[in-house]
Amino acid sequence: MVPQDHAELPVMNLRVMRIDHIQIAAPEDCESAARNFYGSILGMKEIEKPLVLRARGGCWFECGSQQVHIGVERNFQAAKKAHPAFAVFHLDELRETLRARGVTVLDDENLPGARRFYAEDPWGNRLEFVELPA
User: Fold this and answer.
1) In the prediction, which pLDDT does 20 show?
2) Which residues contact 62 (CB under 8 A, 6 or more apart)?
3) Whole-angstrom distance, CA of residue 13 vs CA of residue 10
4) Are 24 and 69 in contact (CB under 8 A)?
5) Which letter does DSSP use for residue 35 in this model?
6) Contacts of 29 (CB under 8 A, 6+ apart)
């Protein structure tokens, strides 16, 4: 149900088409751990950051047609509730790979019709992994 205060908004010609990228905060000097976790373990391809942004630290990865940006946050605090959800094939294989690398995995059966689990990146940010149908 649409809340009443939004029901009367004028229809606009511009609409959000898709997510271009998500940014996940990380502490300073996170690049090595980011490349290991998001690159080596999750299999995302690192992409080059624009020259003007490199001094900020962090690194970027391709995730399908979108991007995942790992951005340095000076007073970093891990996101424990807010999270990206990654659609994956071979959920069980990913779960075992993460566990073998010492990552805690929390299975969740609260979404009917979906197989998923939660895990944390190297800095404690919550991540969700949802299985795509084969």
Assistant:
1) 95
2) 44, 45, 46, 47, 68
3) 10
4) yes
5) I
6) 57
The amino acid at residue 65 is S
Which whole-number Å values give the CA distances from 62 to 12, 31, 50, 66, 86, in the listed order? 31, 15, 14, 6, 12
Question: Which residues partner with 70 through β-bridges?
Answer: 24, 59
Contact 9, 2 (CB under 8 A): no
Other CB atoms within a 10 A radius of the CB of residue 16 amount to 6
In angstroms, rounded to a whole number, what is the distance separating the alpha carbons of residues 74 and 72? 6
Quickly tell me which residue has 């003007």 as its tokens: 52
Contact 34, 122 (CB under 8 A): yes
Tokens of 59: 């690194």
pLDDT at residue 9 tops 80: no
Confidence at residue 52, expressed as pLDDT on a 0 to 100 scale? 95
Rounded to whole angstroms, how far apart are CA atoms 104 and 35?
19
Per the listing, tokens 């891990």 go with 78
